[in-house]
């Protein structure tokens, strides 16, 4: 299982950006099923990963913000009695190993047999930020350090590669969590050279994009730690940021290649399933943001590739799926008994036929009772105050026109609303959120204290 932090659709196989260079991820996509309409349970690392690993939706657990990995079990009865994905495989006779960022910080104690560690923070950093001087943020961009060997992801890739060279007398479940392209967008110069600034295309951007969204949408997506597109344009940094993100994606693609090459040359090449996913998407200037943490397409959509053992043919599915579906899907693929606590859908019917009938929607939750419902055609958002957004991707894939108040779409909204979660658990007191004033207040109301994360 290959996990890529903050990866949006800027990979070649998804066609998200014309300047993308990701030969290794593309190769994997050409050998398995690429889900082009996959969405995160939450548009933020901590709650998304907690949801994926427990098989429980954020609205069930109340984990809406970052949480200490070892606090997940303390949240409520559901999490207390859940088995993490790795533990379920371990219970059924698998050897389990992980390295890097798998949960939010690293791993929950005891959730894997072996853990190769996770670098504290997000890699080596220059003595002072190269571009972005805002305090209390990892956001920055530019070439650094000099060599791939200095990057934590290099160590993680080789740790897993070495595990694949070993003799295993049990089936195994291995997870490798890469840090890039999470900020800071620092990778060695050679990756920047792959993407000359003068040749880059900029993402579609409309300056007044947020004028037709509800006030709450602006409040919960306001993250002053990150630059705005307006700032990037006025300061001549937009192309540099796009270059840095593309460079970071190309770098992590090469790390993915190290692992895939090791698997291909190992004795396990023909009996090992491979899954690659990003924990959520990322805005690169769209809607005036360089951030995740919204309920719009750019923040929820992420790559998902599943390659069963021995499969070598490319399949593409445009059906709406959730990363919450990974747990039951991997369990079914490997012939294990169903875990009845899982709230996701088994995707194996789409692995057999990517165009199979599919009545499900993908749900993304950001804070208590704020949800996005994604189908093949529509994105419907309902916020905790009842306000709404609706986008028709058939005519508006950039989500520039909110048609929630258009009477012609009333029936569509009614149908989409049927997918909204019926349970909306209160914010857990173990969940911390400090990069947004609106949600910081919510977590304080839930009983969270500064001492929780010290």
Automatic annotation (TrEMBL):
Alphabetic keyword roster: Calcium, Hydrolase, Metal-binding, Signal
Pfam family, one: Sulfatase
Residue runs in coiled coils: none
PROSITE patterns cross-referenced by the UniProt entry: SULFATASE_1 (PS00523), SULFATASE_2 (PS00149)
Keyword Hydrolase: yes
Keyword Hydrolase in annotation: yes
Signal peptide (UniProt feature, chain positions): none
Protein name stated in the entry: Sulfatase
Organism: Catenovulum maritimum
């Amino acid at each position: 299982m290959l996990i890529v932090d903050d990866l949006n659709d800027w990979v070649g196989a998804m066609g998200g950006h014309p300047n993308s260079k990701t030969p290794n991820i593309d190769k994997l996509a050409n050998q398995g099923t690429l889900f082009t309409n996959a969405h995160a349970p939450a548009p933020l690392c901590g709650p998304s990963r907690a949801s994926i690993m427990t098989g429980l939706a954020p609205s069930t657990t109340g984990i809406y913000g970052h949480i200490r990995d070892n606090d997940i079990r303390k949240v409520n009865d559901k999490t207390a009695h859940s088995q993490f994905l790795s533990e379920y495989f371990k219970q059924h006779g698998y050897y389990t190993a992980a390295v890097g960022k798998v949960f939010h910080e690293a791993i929950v104690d005891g959730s894997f047999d072996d853990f190769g560690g996770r670098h504290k923070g997000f890699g080596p950093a220059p003595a002072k930020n190269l571009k972005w001087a805002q305090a209390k943020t990892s956001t920055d961009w530019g070439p650094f350090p000099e060599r791939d060997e200095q990057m934590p992801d290099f160590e993680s890739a080789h740790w897993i590669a070495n595990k694949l060279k070993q003799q295993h007398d049990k089936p195994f479940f291995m997870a490798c969590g890469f840090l890039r392209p999470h900020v800071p967008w620092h990778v060695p110069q050679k990756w920047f050279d792959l993407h000359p600034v003068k040749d880059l295309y900029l993402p579609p951007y409309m300056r007044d994009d947020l004028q037709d969204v509800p006030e709450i949408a602006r409040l919960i997506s306001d993250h002053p730690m990150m630059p705005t597109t307006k700032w990037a344009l006025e300061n001549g940094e937009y192309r540099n940021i796009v270059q840095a993100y593309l460079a970071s994606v190309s770098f992590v693609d090469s790390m993915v290649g190290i692992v895939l090459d090791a698997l291909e040359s190992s004795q396990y090449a023909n009996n090992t399933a491979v899954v690659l996913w990003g924990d959520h998407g990322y805005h690169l200037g769209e809607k005036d943001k360089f951030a995740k943490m919204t309920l719009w397409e750019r923040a929820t959509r992420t790559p998902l590739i599943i390659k069963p053992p021995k499969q070598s043919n490319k399949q593409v599915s445009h059906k709406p799926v959730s990363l919450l579906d990974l747990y039951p899907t991997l369990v079914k693929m490997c012939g294990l008994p169903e875990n009845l606590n899982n709230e996701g859908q088994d995707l194996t019917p789409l692995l057999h036929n990517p165009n199979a009938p599919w009545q499900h929607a993908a749900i993304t939750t950001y804070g208590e009772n704020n949800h996005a419902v994604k189908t093949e055609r529509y994105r419907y958002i309902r916020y905790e105050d009842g306000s709404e957004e609706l986008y028709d991707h058939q005519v508006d894939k950039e989500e520039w026109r909110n048609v929630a108040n258009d009477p012609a779409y009333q029936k569509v909204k009614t149908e989409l609303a049927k997918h909204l979660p019926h349970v909306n658990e209160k914010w857990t007191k173990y969940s911390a959120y400090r990069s947004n004033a609106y949600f910081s207040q919510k977590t304080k109301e839930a009983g969270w204290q500064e001492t929780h994360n010290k």
